[in-house]
Amino acid sequence: MTHTPTIHANSRQAFAQSLRIAAGDIKLAHSVFALPFAVLAAFLARDPDSPWGHFALQLALVVLCMVLARTWAMLFNRLADRDIDARNERTARRALASGRLSPTRGWTIALTSAAFFVLGTGGFYLLDQNPWPMILAVPVLAWIAFYSITKRFTALCHVFLGGALGASPIAAAIAIRPVSLPMLFGSSAGAAGTAPSWTIPLLALFVVLWVAGFDVIYALQDLEFDRRENLRSIPARLGPRGAAWVARLLHAGAFGVLILAWHREPRFGPIVLGAVALVGVILALEHTIVARRGLAGIPMAFFTLNGIVSLVLGAAGCAEVVMGA
Questions:
Q1: Does the pLDDT of residue 275 top 60, yes or no?
Q2: CB 125 within 8 A of CB 131
Q3: pTM value?
Q4: What one-character DSSP code corresponds to residue 94?
Q5: Where is 203: in which H helix or E strand?
Q6: What are phi and psi of 196, to 5 degrees?
Q7: Most buried in the list 49, 58, 285, 322, measured by CB within 10 Å?
Q8: What is the C-alpha to C-alpha distance for residues 251 and 245, in angstroms, rounded to an integer?
Q9: In degrees rounded to 5, what are phi and psi of residue 318?
Q10: What is the rounded distance in angstroms from the CA atom of residue 123 to the CA atom of residue 106?
Q11: Which residues are CB-neighbours of 31 under 8 A, at least 6 positions away?
Q12: Does residue 197 register a pLDDT over 80?
């Protein structure tokens, strides 16, 4: 009995160390790809009559749930792929693949994140008697984890990843304002009598195409490995040249959808238009870098430039919605 406090302290320290390893491995900073679009959707869906203090609580819950959901999805991916990752020189140093984090610890953290996500969705019911986040919590967790197994049977795995991230603006909007879909996607945050602008689903579609495009580029790094392991990806299926063209087409489609979203949303003005133009330049630059530098240009194209895309669009959109409130 005298050793119990020491045992508990050591267990807590071990779990804290596992958390640090897991957080470093899944790179929480990469939440920047989807989080700004969830925040923007929350601003778009906000009830104009809702006090800003109340909205701040809603927004905090959205961010918390986003981080928890991403932690679950990324750890599920690492757990599902740990044997594959261990055979891939590029990914062999990942925590689960290398053995720095045990599968038991990984599942513990993943399932704990999922459980807290479900509990977090209950906060929307406490704030607004909104049951939809709780109702949809488990299906959402299943959907965002499903991507991890798609590379085993379809080259469209990149689109499934885009769909996992693209769900974030729609989920955030439903959490902020539980109304019927035509109202939710209306031109004035659901004001009665307005025609639907479909801004939020258009933003979701942009995310799907944008993420799928840059994931195709990212997958170029594993082309030979995927072919050797009989894994499906567009680079493995079409080769570098074909994959590059698919990525360009996906990003061209994403840019077109973004222009349509700006056109359809009356609260978007010159600031968002400027951000849209900048996104077009960044996407073109991304493909230019990859074309000129090959695999060496992927880290900059994937992480830096795509992080700028999400932050610029999210900040510009939120700014104009607030100014027009």
A1: yes
A2: yes
A3: 0.91
A4: S
A5: helix 199-219
A6: -60, 135
A7: 58
A8: 10
A9: -60, -40
A10: 26
A11: 66, 67, 70
A12: no
